[in-house]
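Question: I have long wanted to understand how a fold can be written as tokens. Here is the record:
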Amino acid sequence: MGAVLPGLSGGALAAIFGIYEPIINFVSNFKKDTKTQLKFLLPVLGGGIVGVFLLSHVLSYLLEFHLAEFSIFFVGCMLGIFPTLVKTAGQGGRKPVHLVVAIAVAVLSFLIFSIVFGSTNYTRTSAIGTRTYVMSGAIIGLGITFPGLSPSNFLMYLGLYQPINEAISQLNMIVLIPIAIGGILSILITAKLVSWLLKVAYTMVYHIILGLALTSTVMIIPRDFSSPVMIAVWLSAGLMVGMTMNKFEENNNQIEENN
């Protein structure tokens, strides 16, 4: 969902759910303990495919009629799970400078995203070819390895969001194969860098992720509050889902520690 929903970042969501680091480690060292890693990755991959194809069919309707409600639901989800990311970021120790960096990254990225994506372009661009779709896949891949980066915002700005969404819903392999190639190459190339950064500066990297995740959450807060009651209902629903997932993650970690 983070790969195709405007304003969201797949990498930021993965970090919030506590699966970002395992994914990066697998991609950057996929020859190491492959069998065990695949047991973890296959459900994630399956969920990713379901999320992408599910949203490709309903996204147009939601964007037109229920964008505010759907966006605020995700805000609630991310707020509910946010304590997990804060806890994960501080596992290696936390100093005041890390909090300063997180806040600075949040403010700076918000300003950049606001300026660059202040107005989005939903219209179709002309002369879309294979190279353009490979580039689009690379952008989507960057949204996974660099938390806080929303690929959908870039694609909307370039006028590629609508045709790609249509290709996904129609299973148009002429479009999907180049996108997949670009995405895989992008992830493989950047995952090594991110994996190295986590080894040499874990706490700093995760506080940067924390700042980007905060920006990603703020960016999708709807500006149109035509129905405050419904906004409150959707926000509460999302918050409950997020808190439930947060509790599930804590219980799962406790079980693993006991074993």
The chain has one domain: 10-258.
